[in-house]
Amino acid sequence: MFKKILVFIICFCLSVSIFAQQKKNDATLKLWYAAPAANWNEALPIGNGRLGAMVFGNPAKEQVQLNEETVWSGGPNQNITAESGAAIPELRKLIFEGKFEEAQAIADVKMFPKKNSGMVYQTVGDLFLDFNGHEKATNYYRDLNIEKAVATVTYDLNGVHYKREIFSSFIDQVMIIRLTASKPGQISFTTSMVSPQKSEQKINKGKLILNGITSDHEGEKGQIKFESQVKVVNQGGTLTAKQNTYEVKNANSAIVYVSIATNFKKYNDLSGNATEKAAKFLDKAVLKNYDLALKEHIQFYRNYFNRVKLQLGVSAAVNKPTDQRILEFAKSNDPHLAALYFQYGRYLLISSSQPGTQPATLQGIWNDKLLPPWDSKYTININTEMNYWPAEVTNLTELHDPLFKMVKDLSITGQETAKVMYGAKGWVTHHNTDLFRITGPVDRVFPGLWPMGGNWLSQHLWDHYQFTGDKNFLKQYYPVLKGACEFYLDVLQEEPSHKWLVVVPSVSPENTYVEGKRVSISAGTTMDNQLLFDLFTKTSKAASILNLDVNFRKKLSATIARLAPMQIGKHGQLQEWLTDLDRVDDKHRHVSHLYGVYPSNQISPNRTPELFDAAKTSLLYRGDPATGWSMGWKVNLWARFLDGNHAYKLIADQLRLVGSKLDTVNTKGGGTYPNLLDAHPPFQIDGNFGCTAGIAEMLLQSHDGAVYILPALPDVWADGEITGLIARGGFEIAIAWKNGKIAQLKIKSKLGGNCRLRLNDSQIDKSKIPFKLAKNKNSNTFYEMPQIKTPLISKEAKLNKVLIPKSTDYDLQTVAGKSYTFNF
């Protein structure tokens, strides 16, 4: 009897322990692993918007790879010359005559004189903490808790439990590493720094200092001076300076502080003092109690992160390491990983883009190279824009600010390019820019000869107003919108066939239309026309709201009427070019002509069903396989096509493990590294941000004249809850659903006014609807839709009616600041 009771107690305690561990994992959003990072793509990112680091977690030799957002090669410059624009009249003539290959050859030579292609975002170097004898650690564990923005490493060795906590403090503007052990006198290590930059190290006034200057690049001399200062504070034991290292012996605990700063003040001003700035942050941080520093850091971070919560359910997979979960995702039931991936995108945006910082680059703020892929700069023919797709809808509106500030800078630097290259007023940028806000074309014709980058960036200004209703913001940035319009009003040309006004020369970003040849130069591409329609329409609306520029508005309206319309081609597809040049075997990663579906709102199942069908046909032809960011875009597109299952398939395709010893598949494009970062490959952060925006778009849309609840819910997410998403019109939305049907809907109105709700008939019991049927066509100025011109439809087009969910619109009159709850 005693043995049975003992066995029962042991089994009960074991089950309680397993249950407690499962609950522990269930209750937190974290990436965790049973082994140290073997390479950079397994290390874990931390950041405070300005300072970034990748934490490797090796017990014997901790590596913390360091970044500071303004460490770039070169210095202030502009890459435009008068030569670049000299060939434009000739190119226009050849393109309108249909001599595309000849135009391409001339542009390759004459439009890209020997000037730089932009500067490079660079690493500072690495901090190493050497723990002699810790190679045989057991019970190893490391994680990144994205509910706290803290990385942790724990392990056991010789009866001692060791712990490291690492974070990049939002409050104190330094990185902090705390080392503890379960027994006193057990913390012994040596600190050192290395850098691939031109640098020197010294110990001065109790600090390990590394200072240097960034690289020369493409004719521009490196001018960014940086300094990293490291201070070790030990409790117990000894701290000894040895050459360029600090050695701690037999301490009870220790804290390592890392401060980094540069001489950068503005894109055209490098008069700052890196030493003084780094010292100011560090000297203040070391005076603060560690527990208080950690508490303040977490509180600051949670002010953003906790605004949105997503619950999709939990399976036993939560008890497996994250890399294992990614490997098994496509074949397992692991909805928690999808929720973690969604929130990880929000974590990355909070950590890489704060008010007052630089915008997130192609790699956020995380880069370990002097010459990273694509220079890790700002690629503005989609990638930079994609970085900020989650900002408004996932309740991180303040984090949009760095992008707005960059657009304002470009509206200044781009004036020279507009004048010198095009002989035009206003401002322009092409497909790339950098810390110094270059605006000229780079990288040859097929990506670079695209004068629409500033246009696309400008769309974010109006979008922010739609979500916030902030008229002061609109007034502040209206000159940026107007300046962009002024450029295109000057450079638009009348094409000979239909007398439409088009941008020429241009390209459809990075795609070509002559099979087997890299010919891309063209006139009036569909994306250009869509961008122009949006820019002119939104600027006109902004002027009307602000009661400005009546005559300018009339000019914009007259120009809109002459823009080339969207067209449906011989394959039933939305044409990518002005003439019908699309190929059904074109699998290019860019789907630029579908900008009108997402992120724009020009194509709608309700307002433009023919275009909606044609756009979907185009996406089907283009196919699913793609690079990471392209799959992120396609998640959003399939959500807009109201096909949640197809959107989910793309998420599953993206959550394929690459770059790990667990990986047995050679993935050519797309996928996810063990640290959940997007694998283009190589790493680009836009895929993470694109998928986060895409998941939000599956659950809430507000672009098409209504707040659409659960528009693209996949079958696998039959039960769930999301709180805190933001809809245009300033509505904060919370949704709970069960068995695919809406169970509860909460709406908080920030601005007041009518909230038009769109509900799928299959997801509700219509007899329980507490709302009034919608009557007035345009009920809310924040998401009122412009009227799109009737498209030109080719006679060869064969349209298939797209099946979409049957939905009904309802009106709810709201008062600013009030919340409304409805149970179904």
Automatic annotation (TrEMBL):
Glycosyl hydrolase family 95 N-terminal domain: from which residue to which, for each copy?
31-266
Q: Which GO terms describe its biological process?
A: carbohydrate metabolic process
Q: What is the protein's species of origin?
A: Pedobacter planticolens
* Residues annotated as domain Alpha fucosidase A-like C-terminal: 701-780
Keyword annotations for this protein, in alphabetical order, are: Hydrolase, Signal
Is Transmembrane tagged as a keyword? no
PANTHER family attached to this UniProt entry: ALPHA-L-FUCOSIDASE 2
Q: Which InterPro entries does the record cross-reference, listed alphabetically?
A: 6-hairpin_glycosidase_sf (IPR008928), 6hp_glycosidase-like_sf (IPR012341), AFCA-like_C (IPR049053), Alpha-L-fucosidase (IPR016518), GH95_cat (IPR054363), GH95_N_dom (IPR027414), Glyco_hydro_b (IPR013780)
* Protein name stated in the entry: Glycoside hydrolase family 95 protein
Which residue ranges does the record assign to the Glycosyl hydrolase family 95 catalytic domain?
290-699
Q: Which GO terms describe its molecular function?
A: alpha-L-fucosidase activity
Q: Where is the signal peptide?
A: 1-20
Highest taxon, organism lineage: Bacteria
